[in-house]
Design a protein that fits this description.
Layout lengths: L18 H7 L3 E6 L4 E4 L1 H6 L4 H7 L10 H12 L3 E10 L3 E12 L9 E7 L3 H10 L1 H33 L4 H27 L8 E3 L1 H14 L6 E5 L7 E3 L1 H18 L6 E8 L3 E4 L6 E3 L2 E7 L27 H11 L3 E7 L2 E8 L10
The chain binds adenosine-5'-diphosphate and magnesium ion.
The site of magnesium ion has 4 residues, from helix 9.
Length: 377
């Protein structure tokens, strides 16, 4: 069946809608490319994107619309060869005709007969959204860095009260049942961790980061969940959707805990009092790659970790500056949580993005995978 033939009603037991109007209603440009580059189908968004008509595209083929050295062509080839979907973030697609676009591109083979090679690839080009957000995040790295300088100043203000808190928890411990004692232990462990973190941040500016080790993200998330459940997320449901095949990330465990603690804390603060829910999810997606701005290099970021809540969503007016320090809508907020998250994720060679609407906000962290032999990125 070719794409431009609507599915006959007789072929479906429960007929809903023809495929073509659905494809034309999508905001993303969708093209069906045959082996050799002929364009079999393009939806309306694709016609708009390339500023041409479907008939023209069919006549001319993909090579006419994207530069010969474009990674888009390579991606199509890859999808044919690998026989699976491949995706790239942060590509620049530029031609005199369409100008310059910052896009996310996915190429996925159409498999009709599992024993035969795919006859065509579906190319979807997303001109806005994720790719934009990543661009924005990358350009705001500088802002996040200033947090490090400020941490030195804050260290003094934070470390002193922490030692008081720790001492008080230890005094309490004596009169408690063993069940409650696990909570005072949590206080002590957490204050120790914060002190350590501050110590490390103080020297961070001058010294190289500490050696990385393989870190199991699920252990990180479990730890974060335990802290959350014991405190700020007590009344919330925390659901886990873990991908058991997730390989370790190369990183710094304590700082990764900080990342997800900050994200979960924000999620808990955003979630409604009644029926609040946080979803921690992980996935391994080997197809996810990111173009490094200003170079031909691409890094694979196959570890996907997300924190989702069912709150009101991120206020529209702060979205563009969300990762900058001091951006906050909370009366007692610092606006440092996400700035620090962006900085740490950046230091790990990863990327953070978000999607937010009323009732569903997701922060997604993409990280590189740990390679035991220290293979190049
Ligand atoms: N999950 C979320 N849902 C809605 N808004 C959020 C969420 N996470 C962050 N925000 C917004 O981003 C702002 C900055 O967050 P952050 O940097 O952690 O600072 P703080 O939590 O101290 O305000 C918050 O004040 C809030 O407005
Ligand atoms: Mg916060």
């Amino acid at each position: 069946m070719t794409v431009d033939q609507p599915i006959p009603a007789s072929e479906t037991s429960h007929r809903t809608t023809d495929a073509i109007p659905v494809l034309n209603a999508l905001a993303d440009a969708i093209l069906v490319i045959r082996r050799g580059g002929a364009i079999e189908f393009a939806n309306m968004a694709a016609e708009q994107f390339f500023d041409t008509s479907l008939a023209q595209m069919r006549r001319r083929g993909l090579a006419h619309y994207v530069p010969a050295d474009s990674p888009v062509l390579a991606l199509v080839e890859q999808a044919f060869d690998a026989e699976k979907a491949v995706r790239e973030f942060g590509l620049t697609l530029e031609t005199p005709r369409i100008g310059r676009h910052f896009v996310t591109v996915q190429a996925a083979p159409i498999v009709e007969d599992p024993d035969a090679a795919a006859h065509a690839v579906v190319l979807s080009i997303q001109a806005q959204g994720i790719a934009r957000k990543i661009d924005r995040q990358l350009t705001h790295r500088g802002a996040a860095r200033s947090v490090t300088a400020m941490a030195a100043m804050l260290a003094h203000e934070v470390k002193n009260p922490l030692s008081g808190i720790r001492g008080a928890a230890q005094l309490l411990e004596g009169g408690l049942s063993s069940e409650d004692r696990s909570l005072t232990k949590l206080i002590c462990d957490e204050t120790d961790r914060i002190v350590e973190l501050i110590d490390r941040m103080e020297v961070f500016a001058e010294s190289p980061p500490k050696p990385r080790e393989p870190v199991n993200i699920h252990q990180v998330l479990d730890h974060v969940k335990a802290i959350a459940k014991a405190g700020f997320a007590q009344r919330l449901r925390v659901r886990e959707e873990y991908d058991p095949s997730l390989p370790p990330v190369l990183g710094d465990r304590d700082r990764l805990i900080q990342v997800f603690l900050n994200l979960v804390k924000n999620a808990a603060e955003a979630a409604p009092r009644e029926g609040g829910e946080i979803v921690l999810a992980t996935a391994f997606k080997p197809g996810v790659r990111l173009a490094v701005p200003g170079s031909d290099r691409r890094v694979q970021l196959p570890l996907v970790v997300s924190v989702q809540d069912n709150g009101e969503g991120i206020p529209e007016d702060i979205r563009a500056h969300l990762f900058d320090p001091f951006v906050t809508t909370k009366s007692t907020g610092t606006g440092l949580g996400l700035a620090l998250v962006a900085k740490i994720v950046d230091d790990h060679g990863g990327v953070i993005e978000f999607a937010s609407e009323r009732g569903r906000t997701v922060f997604t962290v993409l990280l590189p995978v740990f390679r035991p032999e220290g293979a190049p990125k």
